[in-house]
Amino acid sequence: MKYVIIGNSAAGIAAAEGIRSADKTGEITIVSDEKYHTYGRPLISYYLLGKTDRGRMRYRPADFYQKNGVSPLFGVRAEKIDAQKKQVFLSDKRVLPYDKLLIATGSRPFLPPMEGMEGVKNKFSFMTLADALSLEKVLSRKKKVLIVGAGLIGLKCLEGIAGRVGKVSVVDMADRVLPSILDEEGAAIVRRELESKGAEFYLSDSVAKFEGDLARLKSGREIPFDILVVAAGVRPNTELVQDAGGEVARGIVTDFRGETSLKDVFAAGDCVESYDITSGRRKILALLPNAYEQGYCAGVNMAGGEAVFDRAMPLNAIGFFGSHVLTAGSYEGESILFAEGERYKKFFVKEGRLNGFILINCSERAGIYTALVRNGTPLSEVDFSLLEERPMLMAYPRAEREKMLSREV
């Protein structure tokens, strides 16, 4: 069998591991438009922060490809697939035949139209190692940085560079930081932590235009800067499947086995729609654990095994300096709040089940909450009044405790 995987991040690596779990000898080729060994994208801010280095950023050991019989093609882009002839056309003019193909092309930065941006000299995105390395070259204690976007990517960039520049300003149309995962109260805690490190926020505002290294906001305020980082969101890379005639909505459409509408073409990761079990809706879940599970499942099925991944849900675990944030599920249903100083818990209970939660600076043993959401456990089966205050296995009946311990929850 000839397996081709387009993408070298979590979903693509997982697919290779899934294939090898069922097929020890088939040919596996990974195509990557980046020139690096697989690495953990969430670590690029820690690289700039000085908390990790290039070696420790690897998502798998240095000998991963060799040990797993994988042929990596670095610095080459897949430009087209022919699903009828089962061929992948590469940017270096090579054509790869395949028996099974995985699309794990991830996403790309969204660059909103902003007048005058073409005249900004030092402008960057913050999604890849190449982005981080390019940004690092221009950082200095004298520089002022403007970040457009107060979401996950923008704030991780802020964390990475705050101690290496003179000033960081962040502008966002939303009225709070991390608007996609935090409510107002939770966002205020994280914002205070970031402001204590010198960050300045311009929220409920946006850039009207750039005049060289000056940003004029719609509110009339002005922000001078030396470096611009645009972190205003991402868009899934769906074109390979769409151009080949495959079904695409907001992302590539797959079944629970990971197969697209194109025969023998699978897809996984940030370019794919997932069925969110907590909301009952299909959506893009651009999350590393989700990408890995999707990729591994697809790999098993590509190699003739049987696997399904039908338990996808939103799940974010992030830290900013001293603040630790864990969120999961959907914020639908009755809310239950516990707040004390900078510690914050908010649970969402719907139809007798925990449907989602926000935890800030109190994430000890939070995997118990995550398991409740993912498994859809009826709260009538546990002592949730005990779990609300402190997650512990004693809140479960004995038989369930033993089952969870056996799974190392």
Automatic annotation (TrEMBL):
GO terms for molecular function: oxidoreductase activity. Keywords: FAD, Flavoprotein. InterPro entries: FAD-bd_OxRdtase, FAD/NAD-bd_sf, FAD/NAD-binding_dom, FAD/NAD-linked_Rdtase_dimer_sf. Coiled coil: none annotated. Residues 1-295 form the FAD/NAD(P)-binding domain. Its cofactor is FAD. Pfam families: Pyr_redox_2 (PF07992). The keyword Metal-binding does not apply. This is FAD-dependent oxidoreductase.
